[in-house]
Specification:
The complex is a heterodimer of chains A (380) and B (275). With 380 residues, chain A is an alpha/beta fold. Chain A is built from 13 helices and 16 strands. In chain A, helix 1 runs parallel beside helix 2 (39-51), helix 3 runs parallel beside helix 4 and helix 10 crosses helix 13 (366-379). The longest helix of chain B has 16 residues, at 259-274. The chains are: A alpha/beta (380), B alpha/beta (275).
Chain lengths: 380, 275
């Protein structure tokens, strides 16, 4: 196990920290296709996985990558892939398949400027909604947004644990800034690892249970039928019966919502106090917000801050609470309002102001954020 | 009454099957299971099956009593690669239609052959997109009438088996659903050949193809397959004379070390070095 855990202090790229987090979590299969700014994850995995007895493959495209990850997961692997916008779009059908078949796996998206090839080398936050609704049909998953190299390590481990616990694809939604940042990362001497629930001899129900069905492994003699078509608890296809579809989809949504508290991670600052301005932010942009808070406090403004580490399921209750205690809510993000519009579902919309910045990988600067807040306060 | 010797491989609780009367998919399933039976396998526990979307993809899922992954349209080969890499001891077999394997999944087919990935792919080539109602496929003959070529097909069909052989597969053969004995023997051989194995089985889809092409019955289609196929050795002597015929037989049989073996060799060497 020691080769899996490089205990101590390191100075790592965010992408490298992500790869090391995966290895620490027990990842033993990686399939990917090169893309900026995620390639360094694949490169680190190519070197490190074989050293710890794991398999690395570079596939012919992202369709193949996600499919190989799914196949490996059913063969017992803790499997992962990493990509950016264009590749994430190609993977969407496979991600839906993973929801439908309850296949645990981790998909890393290091976001860059889109749509299309946009500005390939520049970081962005434009895939928040794609992470939630990119695949067709009803489903529920977990998306995590780290904001430092340390969190790339820590939350990749969490992503694997959640994937195994809930039998879902978990999306680690990073961005080009955090993927390419060089920072100190501490690897502890022990990490908590969750293993998937395995069936006992004679079990036949492997799908659609709200308490998460046990997952057999290929080659163990369970004769498991895995299909992306609507199926019953035993994996038998029912492609026309509405009742079976409702029952199974309800189960795969509820199994996540039931354990929502265990997968909701946020950072709170002066949460619940009566304030003038409350910020909601995530990923690289949230780092500018820390500084904006200090600037505003220097000017005597009362500020609170909710940083979303879990993006989906959206922390709606916390958002509502925050909204009740603040005069205005400001959501700085590097897109045209994907999270600020979500916030408006839970808070009086006239209180919510999005600070949107796209292109060139530019993060809104702390001074601009503070200035924006002061203007909003004055006009509001 | 004695049980049919192949019943032990089938999930009898999902019967009757769903294939149309006269569909070649049943013949392919039968030949595969006979091959398994003749090789002496008591059950399918040493196998893993993988298939995409389409009629042919339903052969293993749900009908085979085995582990099977019924994945997205075209993605059966990379999924099989994931399984085989993690469980090299299993025989991983992919079933799929011509659209699934050579159309939407064609790129994966090429790269699996290039890597010489140790799986067997059985492509049921009914020359059409059967499940979706008979649209033109990359295997549809020139001039054929389908629902999306109402004025006749103006594209040329891919010679999938020859392409796969060129790409680097260890074992490649083409048969039709008329050639059942030779197909069974070919499957037995493919299952025991090291590296990537590919068998194209030219098949019958009366419902979505044959009817529109003027055939009166599925049986007539099988007679047509018999009369229009020709041994590859004969075909090679004069391809122009035999244009339009179906060359059948082994195209490639050169067992070679495969990809998964090379991957694990590297991993074992690295772990031996570090310990
Ligand atoms: C991504 C995607 N595109 C289209 C389809 C619709 N579709 C289902 S089966 C099929 C064609 C199957 O043809 P083939 O692979 O030749 O199998 P056959 O039914 O002829 O055996 C298509 C296009 C799909 N399921 N997924
Ligand atoms: S549509 Fe064609 S390929 Fe599909 S089951 Fe019917 S005959 Fe077979
Ligand atoms: Mg077909």
């Amino acid at each position: 196990m020691d080769k899996r855990l490089l205990i101590g202090k390191h100075f790592w790229l965010g992408d490298v920290a992500c790869a090391e987090g995966a290895i620490a979590a027990g990842c033993n299969f990686f399939a990917g296709y090169p893309i900026t700014p995620a390639s360094e994850i694949a490169e680190r995995m190519a070197k490190r996985l074989p050293e710890v007895g794991g398999v690395f493959v570079q596939m012919e495209d992202e369709l193949a990558s996600i499919s190989a990850v799914i196949g490996a997961s059913w063969a017992g692997a803790k499997a992962m892939t990493a990509t950016s916008g264009p590749g994430f779009s190609l993977m969407q059908e496979g991600i839906g398949y993973a929801y439908m078949t309850e296949t645990p796996c981790v998909i890393v998206n290091v976001m860059r400027v889109g749509p299309s090839t946009g500005q390939a080398t520049k970081g962005a936050q434009g895939d928040v909604m794609q992470a939630r609704w990119g695949t067709h049909g009803d489903h529920m998953g977990v998306t995590l947004c780290p904001n430092s190299a340390q969190e790339m390590f820590d939350y990749t481990i969490k992503a694997f644990n959640i994937a195994e616990m809930l039998r879902i694809p978990v999306i680690l939604l990073s961005d080009g800034v955090i993927g390419h940042i060089m920072e100190p990362v501490t690897v502890p001497d022990r990490v908590e690892i969750v293993e998937r629930k395995k069936p006992s001899q004679g079990d036949t129900m492997f799908f659609g249970l709200e308490d998460v069905a046990p997952m057999p492994e290929f080659g163990e003699g369970f004769n498991v039928l895995v299909t992306g078509s609507t199926h019953n608890e035993r994996g038998i296809r029912h492609t026309t019966d509405p009742e079976v579809h409702r029952r199974m989809i309800n189960a795969i949504v509820r199994k996540v919502l039931k354990r929502r508290d265990e997968v909701t991670f946020v950072e709170k600052y002066r949460f619940g106090e009566g304030v003038d301005v409350a910020f909601i932010s995530y990923g690289c942009t949230s780092r500018a917000v820390y500084e904006a808070v200090r600037i505003l406090e220097g000017k005597g403004v009362d500020v609170s801050f909710l940083r979303l580490i879990t993006m989906w399921p959206f922390p709606d209750e916390l958002t509502r609470e925050l909204g009740e205690c603040a005069k205005v809510i400001i959501v700085p993000e590097m897109n045209l309002g994907q999270v600020s519009n979500e916030v408006k579902k839970y808070v009086c919309p006239s209180k919510v102001y999005g600070l949107h910045r796209i292109g060139g990988g530019e993060i809104p600067r702390p001074g601009e954020i503070a200035k924006f807040a002061l203007e909003v306060l004055k006009s509001g | 009454m004695a049980e049919h010797p192949l019943h032990k491989y089938l999930r009898m609780e999902v019967m009757p099957h769903v294939f149309c009367p006269g569909c070649g998919a049943g013949i392919v399933a039968n030949c595969f299971l006979r091959a398994v039976y003749e090789l002496g396998y008591e059950d399918l526990s040493k196998f893993a099956f993988c298939s995409g979307i389409g009629c042919a993809a339903w052969i293993p899922s749900p009908f085979f009593k085995a582990d099977s992954l019924h994945i997205m349209h075209g993605r059966s080969i990379p999924a099989a690669m994931g399984i085989k890499l993690m469980k090299p001891e299993l025989k991983v077999v992919v079933f799929g239609g011509d659209g699934d394997i050579a159309g939407i999944g064609g790129n994966h087919l090429l790269h699996a052959a290039r890597r010489n990935l140790e799986i067997l792919v059985i492509m049921v080539n009914n020359m059409v997109y059967g499940m979706t109602g008979g649209q033109v496929a990359p295997t549809t003959p020139f001039g054929a009438y389908t629902t999306t070529t109402p004025y006749g097909n103006i594209e040329y069909p891919i010679k999938a088996a020859e392409v796969v052989a060129t790409a680097g597969a260890s074992y490649v053969a083409r048969w039709t659903v008329y050639h059942t004995r030779r197909l069974i023997n070919s499957i037995k051989k493919a299952l025991n050949t090291e590296g990537f194995s590919f068998i194209e089985v030219v098949s019958t889809c009366f419902t979505s193809y044959g009817r529109r092409m003027g055939f009166k019955s599925p049986a007539e289609m099988i007679v047509w397959l018999k009369e229009n196929s020709i041994p590859i050795s004969e075909y090679k002597k004069n391809p122009e004379k035999y244009a339009g015929k179906i060359p059948v037989g082994e195209i490639e049989c050169t067992p070679r070390e495969g990809y998964v073996k090379r991957v694990w060799k590297m991993i074992h060497e690295l772990s031996a070095k570090s310990s």
